[in-house]
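look at this one:
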Amino acid sequence: MAVTSLLDTVFRRRKKKSTEFISSVFEFDLDTIKAATNDFSELVGRGGFGFVYKGRLQNGQEIAVKILSTSSIRTERQFHNELIILSKLKHKNLINLLGFCTKRDQHGLVYEFMPNSSLDCFILDPHRAAQLNWEMCRNIIDGIARGLRYLHEESGLWVVHRDIKPGNILLDSDLKPKIVGFELARTMQQGENAAETTEIVGTVGYLDPEYIRSGRVSVKSDVYAFGVTILTIISRRKAWSVDGDSLIKYVRRCWNRGEAIDVIHEVMREEEREYSISEILRYIHIALLCVDENAERRPNIDKVLHWFSCFSTPLPDPTFGNRFLVEEETNWPWSPSLSPGHSSVTSPISSR
């Protein structure tokens, strides 16, 4: 069967399945999308399977439209996965899906527009990073955690996002965070602790060791990525530096030397008061618990939120292993051609 015919068959099957779940979102006509985006003239980013364009509807509402960049079975699957999952979800810390377009030659998703772009544009840009004080950072971290709790425990779908990172956190006009990038997400059965996968997907630097070793994905995979995200926000460092040193390895080194304060970005270290520094150090401590190499020792997101809100609750000591993440980073099974931070990394799981 020709590739185009195969894609047509897959698309028709998935579209029929999708329509059972998308009554909460609107199907846009392609001409409406083209008019709103001025024929896709303002590119504002790239997300997962496609390019993102800014637009404005006739009623004045600003929108972001993600259009499939290539036509393949994989991108079709990601498109429909995000459409079906997001159409079932509604939370203030998740991106709001307004609608979709599934015309023969153009498939797109329409979202609310986030004027402050993604979190990584803030924390990794020296000028914009200087605008973020600790109170702003804490609110962003807490908002991400609440969004994850909804996904993991409250939505009824038990969703594992599988690609939590600053690039998948958008900020609205008030710098409130919204989780995006659901093309790799998967749902779990109630009470299911982990699921086996046949391939590794996600972003280098945010993938937890158990997932990489065995292909077992769980909500604790998101907790791990969230821990890395906390450290990225506080330190304003990338998850993986150009010299191959991971952020986790750097933070653990500082922690063991009793110099965790060095992890805090200089802007916050210089401007925050003593009580704020203590709170930031507590968040670093919680992040280290989230990135424990043993998934069973990682807290669930509800416990993390409890630790955030109850400063008097004592925290367990972080447990640092030395087998995988600290000593064997160069042996991770992804293609060497993929650079750290690359989204939607895919690596097959070897037979076990």
